[in-house]
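forwarding from the other thread:

> can someone predict this with (4S)-4,5-diaminopentanoic acid?

sure thing
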Amino acid sequence: MLLKSEYLFNRAQESIPGGVNSPARAFKSVGGVPVFFKKAKGSLITDEDGNEYIDYVGSWGPMILGHAYPAVIKAVQDASFKSTSFGAPTRLEIDMAELVKQMVPNVDRVRMVNSGTEACMSAIRVARGYTGKEKIIKFEGNYHGHGDSFLIKAGSGALTLGKPSSPGVTKGNARDTLNADFNDLESVEKLLKKNKDNVAAIILEPVAGNMGCVPPAPGFLEGLRKLCDKHETVLIFDEVMTGFRLARGGAQERFGVDADLVTFGKIIGGGLPVGAFGGKKEIMDVVSPVGPVYQAGTLSGNPLAMSAGIAQLSTLEKHPELYVELEEKTEYLAKRLRVALNNHNIDYHMNQVGSMISIFFTKEKVTSFKTASSTDQEFFKQFFHEMLKREIYLPPSPFETWFLATSHTYEMLDRTIVAADESLAAVKA
Ligand code: HOZ
């Protein structure tokens, strides 16, 4: 029963647009009432009615160690007694920057911001300032937050609502944003040739997570690296989802390809509102006050956020075995989900990279926006609600990724598999 969620959703709509502070939460693509939560611990999340779910959203990624991880909570508590904001430099910011540099070796300089959106907006400004060029190339179905330049053929909530391009974005912005096809180097090359000497940056999610999970094809990231070198274009990896998750050095480490700039979010703040962008010194030195590219924020480097982030990242840094554990658990889940899907004769394609996983209900292999869009959305909708009834909380859209945390136990994974088996049977019935 979702009586309280229903009451709260009705109430919320009177004061908040659509009742939510971010559209992906509104359950538009699955229908029904968004679940309102009141607490979570580890991988269990409790709604306002007292139902307890196994959580595969993990706040869309940051909860890699599970909710309310003791070291993170303690760090935030301790910091809060010393002030919640200084708007001035602190030692914590240096600790955080040094930790990032240690975990992501090709980052020489890093600037903290307040969200992944801010990080990506800033990164493209830096790329433009550094190269003196204007256009950017992004990939259809990738999502880099809600900055104007990114809301053209975007993924995540924009895609979920069936409006990948947003009104309110100027023609100028649209003109400067070129869209290529994910995993298609030829489409990138064509755009680079057509816009010779005017592409400042190529930005992408190295493993797309906002059209469901879509890995890079072999050679794709390497090919982009070569093209960027050839055309003197800045390669930006948006590692908001993959950073510190796919490996301590993120997708760069996992795939052995170095970007010029990297953006982070979510995990870097241990669940507090944080983002960051960083990269080679030569490029980052254009950032104000060293260089002329302006970027600022009173809450940037906020002491609560830095403390939470440091606690989470240093746990990951000290315990590389956590990555092995996460991968093993995700493979365990994926393997058994496949058995259930096969037993029920479902058309599906599953993508899994590290602790990111997605099931697409389609016959096609999902490698791009086009193939991700071939998923049977109606089937997903019913599957989602059947899982919810069985207290499994999946991302409420076929175009989002499931995230595992170290706090998922094998018992939880087994319960999820039983729930999936029953849900598939119910949908097919
Ligand atoms: N853009 C996030 C998922 N890809 C969703 C943000 C939210 O609703 O919290």
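The domain at 70-318 is CATH 3.40.640.10 (Aspartate Aminotransferase; domain 2). thats all i got for now
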